[in-house]
Amino acid sequence: MRKGISQFADAMYPGIPLRAMPHPPLAVVLAGVLFATLGTPPAIGQTNTPAPIAGKTGPAEEKPKRFALGVELRWRTEWRDNADLRPVNDSDGFTGQRIRINLRARLHPRFSFFMQGQDVWLFDAKSDKVIHDLNTNLHQAYFDWGLDSEARWEFRGGRQEWIYGEERLVGAFNWDNVGRSFDGARLRYRRGAWTNDFLWGRQVDVPRNGARSRAAGQDLSGAYLMRSSKGSPGKVELYALFLRDGLRTSGEIAGAPKGTMRILTLGFRRAYEPKTGWRYSVENAWQAGKRGPDGHRAVAFVATTGYAWGGRWKPRLGIEYDFATGDNASKDGRSREFNNLFPTNHPFYGYADLIGLRNMHDFRGTAAVSLHPRVQLEFDYHHFLLASPRGPWKDARGRLLGLDPAGLSGRDIGQELDFTFRLPVQQHLHLLGGYSLFLPGRFAERTRGPEPHRFAYIQTTVRF
């Protein structure tokens, strides 16, 4: 056991004694115990696949294991320059580290349990201190009932991730080192080509920088219906999601009593995405309810289309248009800014993460190619505009980045260029890297600053 812990510590921090490690030993001990139990992970280019048995002509069907262990190790180094778009030098670089260890136990053909703990650290950050106080926490812990392939009903209860559609409204936010999960329940009903989920949960709030975030008391409930025929690249999704925030907030009219947020989102998504050929997707969502004491009405629309070729290079071209309403009158007691709920925002509206699906137009073009079966390159161009020039410019978390109540700064937020490469070295090792350049437009220059923003990162993920 001690040998396994030492091997893991040496692999992560070569030349540093275990006692002098900059990382708390808990994650190292847990991973070391796992390695000692399962054996040393394979080196790059090797796998743990057993040698074929003599006389066997093909792989035998394996029954689900009663117990299964898994580990994910992820390191991402990030560098940002001029994040506030102002001339003052505010370059910042840091490395984020995440370790997840999970256990799945299949205790009965129709009952299983899954638990996933994680340990997250941030090194060398100066201004972007996003590390949370509780470095080690329980990310998921749930049980599944009704796992039989012919069972129409399935129930999942406990702490769990929710991923729906493209994750534009409900996602696990895996780009973030902490991620997102909910304490709740999901009831799934299957019939024919339809898979229908009925869910309720409260977002898990992990304290950051010594304070609880606005995730405290945010409940999401509703239904998500999905139709997808076997072997067909097309799918249809219908959803009704109700967001309730327990925090009492003020409204736009001075003196109005405070109230909670209660927003109903109704929407549909239609997608047709074959491996090659023409592809498209359309998503439309409408919102109604209350935002504090103010009435709330908002709309969002997403449309994509493109073409993918096969062959050696597998080139792909695509265009996309995204729209979300904003609030053009901040004192009338009516909220019009679309609430993007719980998204995985990163891959859709610019990798620099400077805008969310709120008060925006986004015109996007994409070109991708595989230079090698294991090397994928992608280029994205975005042009961001405000939907309402008197409304705020916000990111996906709702953080205010720019505002001109008089509407004299125009609509042009700016343009962004994203370069991304993906390199799955082998089954257990994946590399991801990219560079983003944001060029501020007239609105961003007047409300924030004229300097271009640069963002670069490289991420290494090991799973086994």
Description:
This protein is mainly β. The chain has 2 domains: 1-40, no CATH class; 70-463, Porin. 7% of the residues lie in helices and 50% in strands. The chain is built from 3 helices and 21 strands. The protein has helices at 2-12, 25-38, 442-447, and strands at 67-81, 92-108, 111-123, 136-145, 153-160, 182-191, 194-203, 218-227, 234-249, 259-272, 277-291, 294-308, 316-324, 334-335, 360-372, 375-385, 393-394, 400-402, 412-426, 429-440, 453-463. The strands form 2 sheets. The protein has an 18-stranded antiparallel beta barrel. A two-stranded antiparallel sheet has the order 17-18. β6 and β7 form a beta hairpin. α1 packs across α2. The radius of gyration is 24 Å and the shape is globular. The model is unreliable at 11-16, 18-59 and 127-133 (pLDDT under 50).
Biggest β-sheet strands, sense, barrel: 18 strands, antiparallel, barrel
Assigned CATH class of the largest domain = Mainly Beta
| Number of separate structural domains | 2
What's the CATH topology label of the largest domain? Porin
The computed structural class is mainly beta
Which labels suit this protein?
2 domains; mainly beta; Porin; 50% strand; two-stranded antiparallel ribbon; globular; 464 residues
Structure in a nutshell:
The protein has 464 residues and is mainly β.
Q: How would you summarize the topology of this molecule?
A:
Elements: H1 2-12, H2 25-38, E1 67-81, E2 92-108, E3 111-123, E4 136-145, E5 153-160, E6 182-191, E7 194-203, E8 218-227, E9 234-249, E10 259-272, E11 277-291, E12 294-308, E13 316-324, E14 334-335, E15 360-372, E16 375-385, E17 393-394, E18 400-402, E19 412-426, E20 429-440, H3 442-447, E21 453-463
Parallel strand pairs: 12-14
Antiparallel strand pairs: 1-2, 1-21, 2-3, 3-4, 4-5, 5-6, 6-7, 7-8, 8-9, 9-10, 10-11, 11-12, 12-13, 13-15, 15-16, 16-19, 17-18, 19-20, 20-21
